Amino acid sequence: MHVVIIYIFEIDNIVNINILKKMVKYIEDHPHEICLLISLVFVFIEMNKNHNNFISVYLLSFISGVCFNKICKFNIKDIKCVDLFLNKILAYTLCISLMITFSFLKKKKKKEKEKKNIASWLIDTKNKIIYSEKKKSVINKLLIQSRFLYVGIAFIFGMVGTIVGGIISYYIIKIIFNINNTKNKDTYLKRSACCFISTYIGGHINLIEIAELLKLNNLEKNSIFILDDFFTNLFLMMLPLFKKYSNLLSFPNDKNLQKSLASQIKQNKKNNDILNYQSHNDETRRLILYEPKEITYGSFIYNNENNNFEKNLIKNINSEHNFVYKMFGKIIYDSLSIMFIIILTEQILTHYELLHKIINLYIINVVKIKAFLLFSITFIYLFFIDYIIQTISGIANCDCKNSKLIIYTQKIIEMIRYIYFRSIEYYSTVLNFLFIYYLFFLGILININSLFAISKSLAVLVISMLIIHLFCVFFLSYIYNNLCSKNENTAIHIDEILLAINANIGGPTTATIMSELFKRHDLTFVSTLWGIIGYFIATDISMIIYQRL
């Protein structure tokens, strides 16, 4: 009897081992499908989790990919697979991040008439005074209210930290590992340091560009890519912890700012009447984030009438008694919205590649206009789509109900408008999915054994640069807040510091994703813009440093 039981257990073990082998074989043969499935699971977790958790979904997806690599033993044979995902997936994420940026641009509201009445006493004054007031208002909105200036200061601090960290780390590693005597190792270390300096000023895309300019071979590229992917993504995914413990770092947090603003408003209401409060409360003392959350998309001006179409459409769907019909209708609208995002992104990238090829025939070096070209095409597409939606919305708001054709046309237009605005809500979801997919697949490509097989000097170089970069940003921001800022509105806040670090280390894409994670949509455009600026200047700075080292 015991022999039979042992035999049965052995058969079960053999069957389980065979099943595991088949699963591993399937994962090895179909890595894209596995990444897709697991990324969908992680996106669902991200949508339904508390953001105060210690480990973010992004970090978890990256670690899961590394574990899958350890189980299935993937190997990178050449650079083509990495180039594919750095170009294609990052192009998708950058394009959608630009869509989010344009979508969350704050538009003018119908409060301008009130402002004109309040400032009516300026009409009798000289034109110079009016012109100077308008000029101050424009500068105030551009630099102060949008937080462009303060994110830029933190970004410059990070750029200084990257340059100083790269130079100091280069000389420290030369001394520690005694690389002075060997010329080949010294040249490779110098090239690697410049590659990481370029990457940590403008993001991942600069790594490909600087590697081509320095003429690195495939083995050197692979080692730098692996180290950058592992340590950079690990570093960026740990950054939200600094927001959680920002009180320990003595940096102004959003909660403190909200309390101070609330106390100021209460005090002003007690001392002044409403008109005096409106006239003396200058916009330079207020952040965009704490104004009424009346954010509009595209060129639509916010009012209740223009947004009633969505509520009416939802009421029409909910008025049906069939639960299956309501669920089916919602699934159709959501699916069409996601399809619209995918089709629009593919069209933008197709025209971008076409224009890039045409320009490449007449201009020798078109590397630096890639981001600007994508930026322009995305803006043109969204502007014209938004203009078309706004134009046809006049037909939907028409009260003419004599003809059935007009009624059906209005319903179709309402459906199109609903799908368009619904797709805007799905921008961040699709972006999160792409970024999780990107991190998980990068984790699969990274082999831990090959990571430790790479020279220790490069690993120490990356870690040292990231630590010095982080120290410089926080230290210089702390000095600025204590010496230069007069109040909390003119100080650099923890969100702005972290987004500037993301714009430096990861580029515009990760800065956009981090602004989504922090729920700081008012900083999306600013952080993305500084990331693009870093992309333009990073390669030139690193090449100058390479010549000086």
Automatic annotation (TrEMBL):
Q: Specify one Pfam family.
A: DUF819
Q: Which residues cross the membrane?
A: 54-72, 84-105, 148-173, 331-349, 361-384, 424-446, 458-480, 523-546
**Key word Ligase present in the record?**
no
Keyword set includes Transmembrane: yes
List the InterPro entries: DUF819
Keyword line: Membrane, Transmembrane, Transmembrane helix
Protein's recorded name = Uncharacterized protein
Q: Whose protein is this, by species?
A: Plasmodium chabaudi adami
Question: What lineage does UniProt assign to this protein's organism?
Answer: Eukaryota, Sar, Alveolata, Apicomplexa, Aconoidasida
